[in-house]
Design brief:
alpha+beta, Phosphorylase Kinase, domain 1, Transferase(Phosphotransferase), domain 1, two-stranded antiparallel sheet, 10 helices, elongated
Length: 275
């Protein structure tokens, strides 16, 4: 497949990564090209992708081809918006931190990459943050650090360490999610991403509160017209009662409506209270 290289994203002893587009296109970038130059590394990557495809029945790349003796893999291009850059000062709210953690775990769960490559994405900080706080992983990795012995459990534990860094607020009282994940990470308790996901969701107190507020807002937005009609009827009935009471007072000099209650209390059984 012929692509036009726009800019070099990474170069190492084992591979290079380029931002590319199709020839004649005017867009900034359409694809990310991972070109594996080292032959032994290329063999390892091919075997890893084949094994992952047999297990997950999904391919992480759009196309693969050989160009100038290099094994090339083409991926969809994602804008360079690294999470590490935004964590320095723009991500402060606890609820947002927890949302990002959930997004990262889900991105790992949904990743079609084999575990050794996913591990490199996490280790080398190839974690992107979209404008709506969605989390994605990019393939701009240095394959010189590739270790084919890495397992999913290794990825899970590395991901948990990253979550601890995201959730740490350095406040006097840390988040419950931070405390739980740190405690279980210290004891090497995590083996699957689903376990980490469960713990975050279980301790997202800020998220639950906000979801409750959002639910109330949605309820009022959905039934606004009905609630308005009920309020209008209530106001009309209240105004009618007030008008009747005013007319009664002007006519007899008293509120006849209240005498229905006060006069009934003057007699209890056979005794009169005002005697």
């Amino acid at each position: 497949m012929e692509v036009e290289k726009i800019s070099l994203l990474l170069r190492s002893a084992a591979n290079s990564v380029w931002a590319c587009r199709e020839p004649g296109e005017s867009v900034a970038a359409s694809y990310t090209l991972l070109a594996v130059e080292d032959r032994e590394t290329a063999k390892t990557v091919i075997a890893l992708f084949e094994e992952a495809f047999a297990e997950k029945h999904r391919s992480p790349f759009l196309n693969s081809f050989v160009e100038d003796g290099k094994m090339c893999y083409l991926f969809p291009y994602r804008t360079e918006r690294k999470l590490s850059e935004f964590m320095k000062g723009q991500v402060r709210a606890p609820a947002m931190r927890e949302e990002i953690c959930v997004g990262l775990v889900l991105a790992c769960l949904d990743s079609p990459f084999p575990a050794p490559l996913l591990y490199l994405q996490l280790k080398q900080g190839q974690i992107g943050l979209s404008q709506d706080n969605g989390v994605y992983l990019t393939p701009a990795i240095d394959l010189a650090e590739l270790d084919p012995r890495i397992t999913e459990e290794d990825c899970v534990r590395l991901c948990a360490q990253i979550l601890i860094g995201i959730l740490r607020t350095n406040a006097r009282k840390e988040l419950k999610s931070f405390e739980l994940i740190r405690r279980k990470t210290d004891h090497l308790a995590y083996q699957q991403f689903s376990e980490v996901y469960h713990d975050i969701r279980m301790t997202m107190t800020q998220k639950k509160k906000r979801l409750g507020i959002e639910a109330v807002k949605r309820f009022f937005a959905q039934y606004r017209d009905v609630l308005f009609r009920i309020l209008l009827v209530f106001c009309i009935v209240t105004a009618a009662i007030a008008a009747i009471m005013l007319i009664s007072y002007l006519a007899v000099g008293d509120f006849a409506f209240f005498r229905l209650f006060t006069h009934n209390l003057n007699t209890i059984g056979t005794e009169r209270l005002n005697v």
